[in-house]
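ingest -> validate -> predict -> emit
validate: passed (alphabet ok, no gaps, 146 aa)
predict: started
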Amino acid sequence: MKVLYTAEALATGDGRDGQARTTDGKLEVNLASPMELGGDGNGTNPEQLFAAGYAACFHSALRVVARRSKADISGSRVRAEVDFGANGNGGYGIGVRMHVSLPALDAETAQSLTEAAHQVCPYSNATRGNIPMELLVDANSTTQEA
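emit:
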């Protein structure tokens, strides 16, 4: 792989209940386990950060494939849902549902572009075959707010 950019982040404290920051200082967050996992929920968590990054990256990939196809994706939105749970082997895992809204397109074109974006997106390529992934496409509608 020809490296085009490297992001670097440091996590300190107690893992899910600590702090994380990028070395360039552009992102700095307090981490807290969600209340559903026994935490106080007074911070973000790795699953939220992953969901935000994956949604943004997928949306960017969608824009790339749409531009190549000369497709109108005005009003497009991408919402990632990231599940966290026990994997049955003594460890933990995640699963993703990617909600893609392409209101300017018909259902067939929207589905085709979404599947193409899934092949282009670095997050999709990194996780393919490793986590449950579901692509949910809405054409001529909008996804709900996160």
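The chain has a mean pLDDT of 94.
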